[in-house]
């Protein structure tokens, strides 16, 4: 696991975007793995700059989001379908037909989950997976005790994650209780993984991920087994590393 400590949150985005761009440039049809939430926004801003300045061509790229809420109207501004469209697809000029988000409003969620894993495989697998990390060590919505072998599936969100995400909704009651998320096994299949974290609230989760024992209680710790995992953090998120 490569760990890069940056002076501030914007530099985290720049360094992580450079890594993502490097992987994309080496692939003829790059397949990106996308995270939502606050952490990756600086990466998307820097990728947009790189595309705008002609330093990166994503014209042939496709993308797969990590997760989606269950039971939230896809047109809701906080559905991950909407968030990905607003923060990634449009600014980076990706072809919307090649940007995929799990279907949290499918009638048969298990079938939708299995179909999602198949679609990733049919696209040739993810070249570079962008990840944030929850304050409880989750990646995607793989909450503590998630199986390392898990594939895309339905999960119940913990109270802590619902409280963390309440800021995007009017009240806690409006935060969905379930989601569809890529599994830890699905995420580990990506050929490169770039995890970013900023701020002191992530410091404990980062330390447990990088230096703690590999345990299902800290789902991100499974990345210690990944051959090409890069963790890019600011000084505050790095503050509990030894
Ligand atoms: C989002 C996701 C989550 C977030 C994590 C951190 O697609 O999969 O794992 O990355 O909850 O969220 P932020 O970045 O908002 O602190």
TrEMBL record:
It catalyses: alpha-D-glucosamine 6-phosphate + H2O = beta-D-fructose 6-phosphate + NH4(+). Its EC number is 3.5.99.6. Catalyzes the reversible isomerization-deamination of glucosamine 6-phosphate (GlcN6P) to form fructose 6-phosphate (Fru6P) and ammonium ion. Allosterically activated by N-acetylglucosamine 6-phosphate (GlcNAc6P). Belongs to the glucosamine/galactosamine-6-phosphate isomerase family. NagB subfamily. GO terms for biological process: carbohydrate metabolic process; glucosamine catabolic process; N-acetylglucosamine catabolic process; N-acetylneuraminate catabolic process. The active site is at 67 (proton acceptor), 136 (for ring-opening step), 138 (proton acceptor), 143 (for ring-opening step). Keywords: Allosteric enzyme, Carbohydrate metabolism, Hydrolase. InterPro entries: Glc/Gal-6P_isomerase, Glucosamine6P_isomerase, Glucosamine6P_isomerase_CS, NagB/RpiA_transferase-like. CDD domains: GlcN6P_deaminase (cd01399). The keyword Phosphoprotein does not apply. The keyword Hydrolase applies. Gene3D superfamilies: 3.40.50.1360. It comes from the Bacteria. GO terms for cellular component: cytoplasm. The record marks 146, 153, 155-156 as: Part of the allosteric site. Residues 11-229 form the Glucosamine/galactosamine-6-phosphate isomerase domain. Pathway: Amino-sugar metabolism; N-acetylneuraminate degradation; D-fructose 6-phosphate from N-acetylneuraminate: step 5/5. Coiled coil: none annotated. GO terms for molecular function: glucosamine-6-phosphate deaminase activity; identical protein binding. It is an enzyme of class 3 (hydrolase). This is Glucosamine-6-phosphate deaminase.
């Amino acid at each position: 696991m490569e760990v890069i400590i940056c002076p501030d949150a914007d530099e985290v985005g720049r360094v992580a975007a450079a890594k993502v761009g490097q992987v994309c440039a080496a692939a003829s049809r790059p397949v990106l793995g996308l995270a939502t939430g606050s952490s990756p926004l600086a990466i998307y801003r820097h990728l947009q700059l790189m595309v705008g300045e002609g330093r990166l061509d994503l014209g042939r790229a496709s993308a797969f989001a990590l997760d989606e809420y269950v039971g939230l109207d896809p047109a809701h501004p906080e559905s991950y379908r909407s968030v990905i469209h607003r923060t990634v697809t449009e600014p980076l000029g990706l072809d919307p037909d090649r940007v995929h988000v799990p279907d949290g409003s499918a009638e048969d969620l298990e079938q939708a989950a299995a179909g999602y894993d198949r679609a990733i495989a049919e696209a040739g697998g993810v070249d570079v997976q962008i990840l944030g990390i929850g304050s409880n060590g989750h990646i995607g919505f793989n909450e503590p005790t998630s199986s390392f072998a898990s594939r895309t599936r339905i999960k119940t969100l913990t109270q802590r994650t619902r409280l963390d995400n309440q800021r995007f909704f009017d009240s806690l009651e409006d935060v969905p209780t379930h989601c569809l998320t890529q599994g830890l096994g699905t995420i580990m299949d990506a050929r490169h993984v770039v995890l970013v974290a900023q701020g002191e609230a992530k410091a404990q989760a980062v330390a447990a991920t990088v230096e703690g024992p590999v345990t299902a209680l800290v789902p991100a710790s499974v990345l210690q087994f990944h051959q090409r995992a890069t963790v890019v953090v600011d000084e505050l998120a790095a503050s509990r590393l030894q």
